[in-house]
Design goal:
The complex is a heterodimer of chains A (199) and B (61). With 199 residues, chain A is an alpha/beta fold. In chain A, 43% of the residues lie in helices and 12% in strands. Chain B has a three-stranded antiparallel beta sheet, covered by helices on one side. Classes of the chains: A alpha/beta (199), B alpha+beta (61).
Chain lengths: 199, 61
Amino acid sequence: MTTEIQLSPEVEARINAAVSARFAELIEAQMKAQAEAKAAPRPEKRRRRLAIVASKGTLDMAYPPLILASAGAALGWEVAIFFTFYGLDVINAKRNKHLQVAPLGNPAMPVPVPNLVGAIPGMTAMATKMMKSWMKKANMPTVEEMISICRQSGVQLIACSTTMGVMSVDKGDILPGLDISGAAAFLDFAAEADVSLFI
Amino acid sequence: MPVIRLREAIDKIGAGQVIKVLATDPASLHDMPAFARNTGHELIESATADGVFEYLFRKAP
């Protein structure tokens, strides 16, 4: 049930005037805010950033960080890979030509090898040879070629200095021209990253 | 790796110029539009024929 209240014309006129004044005030504030937003300098568009930790030193696991990094660089992103622990082998000038893949404990080998058979001497060399031949058939660049694609496209490759100490890796073992730095410096880069991956 | 090859090639042409990409990798169907979104280069045409994917890009000004 509603009750109609009769307002005196004087009260009604005052209400109308107050509402109009308030409305005009709000509109003005809105217009001003819009004008200010338009005039304000646009924040400069920052390049997207990808931070990858590469922690594995097998032939199969050397590829994902390098492929993602080169793709990111191709998209115009700022990319860094931090090579730590076994990942260091990927940028080790002596060792990165000889990365291997082991069938032992790896049920995902395209040609399934019974686990125990994978333990037989020579099986790792065989699996590595096979994987290299598939890569070649698929026109996949070698690990060394992937590294040079990354470097040419501006990907920053960083060797973890702590791991180098732990694993007695000499500065001269790392590919020339790469950065050697610690976790703090990498985290500083990664803190501003849009995508961070641990591989 | 069509995206990486495209990046190398598009860096060598002038703004507004058009480049044609021929790829056999079906993943390029997704990668090429992603490349356009990320770089600002315009994907103006894409077509498929006999397992070859063809794309035309106009380099961003």
